[in-house]
Structure formats: C-alpha cells, structure tokens
Here is the input.
Amino acid sequence: MQKTLLALGLGTALSALSFGAMAQDGVNLVYWSLWNEPEPGANVMKSLIADFEAAHPGVTITPVWNGRQNQTTVRNALAGGTQIDIMDSDMDGLKGGLAAAGALLPWDAELAAPAPGGEAGTFGDLFYPHLLDMASNDGTLYQIPYMLYAYNIFYSQGALEKAGVSALPEDWDGFVAALEQVKASGLNGIAVESDIAFYNIKWFNYLIERVAGPDFLMRATEDKTGETWRDPAVLKAVELELDLWARGLIPAESRGYQWPAGQQTIAFDETAVELVGSWLPVELADTVEDDFKWGAIRFPSVEGGLGDVNHVEINSHSMAILASSTHEAEAREFIKFIASTPSQQRYATDAKIGVANRNVEWAPEVAAARKSLDEATLILSENHGIKAKYPDYSTNVYEALHNQVFLGSITPAEFVDQMVARTKEFWANRS
Here is the structure.
C-alpha cells in the first residue's frame, strides 16, 4: 500500500513538474554522480531518472557514476573541456570548491517559486531550517541539498542488551560508565577506522564543542598566530578522547583497522557503538541479521562545558548545475524533481538514507538521527565550518594532525605545538 501511494505521489509530482516550456526535443543532460553504481543511492537515482525521462520524452539523462571523489573528477574533466550539466558532491566540499570558484549556477531566484508537484509552500520551504543558509556562499546559493546525514553515536541494541545496558546516557561520565559495562561483558565498546580521518575527527569536534562552545574551532583556525590552540580546552578534549583508548573502550587492534573493518564488528555484535554519519545502517544493511536493531544518541554533554547536547554536526550531499551547461532549464527541473517530497521519500524508504526535505519520514534504522535533527537547537557544518571555508587546512592540517594524536603517534602536547605552528604557517603562506 505504501509503495502504491508513493508511486501515485511521484506521478503527480512528475505531472506538475512538466509545467512551462521544456526545451526542444533531443536534450541530453549529462549528470556526473557521487554514487557508486551498485549502491542503494545509485539504484534509487536510476529509477528516478527513468521516471523523469518517461514524463519528458524529449529529455534524456546520462549518468556517470564516479563515487565520492566526484568533485575532483569533475574539475579535471572541465579542465579538459568535457561537457557536464549536473553534478553532486558533499555540501561543504562543494561550497569550498566549485561554488567558491564560480563554476556553478545560482538558485536564489528559484526559492520563492511554488514547491514542485503542487505541494503547499515554496520550493525553499521544503528544506530543513537554516540548511540552505549553510549551503550558501556569502548569501548566494549554488547547490541544492538532497541527502542529509547526522553525526550521532550509533549503537547495536543487541550488543547493549547482551551487556545489560538498558540505555546509553547522553552525558560523558554516564556514557563512559555504560561502555565500561559493555567491556566487562566481553564485548568491545567503540569501533573506529584508523584510516578514515574525517570519521575520527568527529570525536574531537564534538568534545571541543561540548567543552569550549560551537565557535571555538573557527576562532582557533582564524587566529593567525596559532596561539588559540594552546587554550586548555584543547588538551582537555584530546585527553577525554584518548582516555577511551586508555580504558580499552576502543580496542588497541583498532589502530590497524582499515575501513570497513571497524564497522563490521558492530554488524557482528562484537562492538557496541560507533561515532559516524547516519549512512552507517545503509552500509551495513547487507551484513547485519534481519532482526538487527539500530539505535543512536546525540553526542554526550561534558559537565561544566559551554556546548550543548542539542548541537548536532551534519553532512549533506547536494546537486548543482555547472555554469557551462547549455540546458539550464531542464537541469533545474530535474533537480527540483529530485528535491520533491515523493522523490525524497523514495530515497528514505528504498535506500534508507536521510534526506534534506523536512516533509519526509526517515526509515526506522535512522529515525533516531532524524529525531536528533528535529530537536537540535544548533546545526553544525562539517568541522564547524572549517571544511567549507578552509578546505586545505581542514584536511591537511586539522584532520591529519588529529588522526596522529588520536592513534597515538604523537602526544597531546605535540599535537598542540604542531597545530600552533601549522596554523601560523598556513596564514603566513596565504598573505
């Protein structure tokens, strides 16, 4: 019944999206995608492309499945003169990349237009509050978010039940105590992937936010002397995350895990939790047993800190139109179709992915992530804005040095000293 209703809704949306004069027959939109072809996200996109083409006989869409390095691949192709109409990438990467470079078309004039498919409100009303502001470059929107992920602490309900833990507390001391109970039961507490620095950085991101507040990371990054990194809050945050290793809550062998080795231990109920984006249940869908139960909590508060448990960090995927596209009208209609509620519901239902359209119900596996966003009083972008504003610094300084201290190859004091020196060097090279 649900699939029947969804199909009817999608047909209505497609019919309504046909308004206005689509360009002449024979238009081919070239879409370079961040999805890998076998992924559930790619499968849903294929079905949506087919539906759009069926409703617009003169328009075809040619997808190219490039995977997560899509923006880099698109950049190289554009430099070689390849014609591309539509692409997608992670929101903050796109904001600091092709959008900042002026290579994308703006969307601001479309936001006040009626929502696609005859829905109430405007096109801009479809999205989570403030998400479009976060996606904008200096007040201009060059991308349309369509996937939305919350960074939460995901857990195996089965593992917690085996350990006799009825619920994970959302305060740090209670959280650590619960994981001690998990460890005492013979299970591992926390899964990590040693080679995924942008996963591991979330421990520090959240801890420094909970200790020093949501603006600390940007202040430290933009201090051209680098000295803000000597704030005692930095050492406190590092020591809290390293204490997880010292207690054995993160098993020592995790230092050798390469993705997806760590998360696989959750699927097998050997490990209780992982701090990661809400794509995790999708990635493990073919590995877990049919009766596997997911849960998630917000990152815990730290006593006496300036942050808040209702501050949630996100990741989003967005679609964009290349400024060099010769089929702007058709490209806009296709992206509006992808952002429409029926299309977004198909992603949420069939691929079990969180979506940017706030009218859509998320799958049970990620319902807790949706709840954390609904209750959030502040949404934080990746690395609290650093990734979008200073992408090289974010990856090559901040994430890289953190991964070294997180895995134990440098000490907390060395981390602080190197962050001071590398931040100062970064700004000296920009002047």
